Amino acid sequence: MSDCPNCGKLAVKRHRPFCSERCANADLARWFEGRYRIPTDEAPTVHQGGGDPALDEEC
User: Fold this and answer.
1) What's the CA gap between 4 and 52, in Å, rounded?
2) If you placed Cys at 19, which of 4, 48, 53, 58 could pair as Cys (CB 3.0 to 4.6 Å)?
3) Residues 6+ apart with CB under 8 A from 3
4) Which helix (H) or strand (E) holds 54?
5) Statement: residue 45 has pLDDT above 70
6) CATH topology for 1-37?
7) What is the dihedral of CA 59, 34, 32, 36, to 10 degrees?
C-alpha cells in the first residue's frame, strides 16, 4: 500500500488512495473549490444556449 496524499498515513483499501473517509472528502472538497486546475490564458467558455429553452431561462 501507499501513503495517503493528504496526511501521509498508510492508505486503506476501502478509501484508497486515502487513509480515511475524512481525507477522501477533504480532497473532494478541493476539487469542488477549483484548486485542482491547470492554469491557462484561454478565456472561460460561455454557454451560448441552443439547447432546451426551459433550461436556458433565467430564474
Assistant:
1) 43
2) 4
3) 9, 10, 11
4) helix 53-56
5) yes
6) Erythroid Transcription Factor GATA-1; Chain A (3.30.50)
7) 150
Distances (CA, A) of 47 to 5, 9, 13, 14, 44: 35, 43, 40, 39, 10
Look at residue 10 and give its three-state secondary structure.
Answer: strand
Position 50 scores a pLDDT of 62
Report field, pTM of the whole predicted structure over 0.85: no
| Torsion angles phi and psi, residue 3, rounded to 5 | -90, 150
Give the tens place of pLDDT for each residue, 4-16.
999 999 999 999 9
Grid cell 441552443 is found at 50
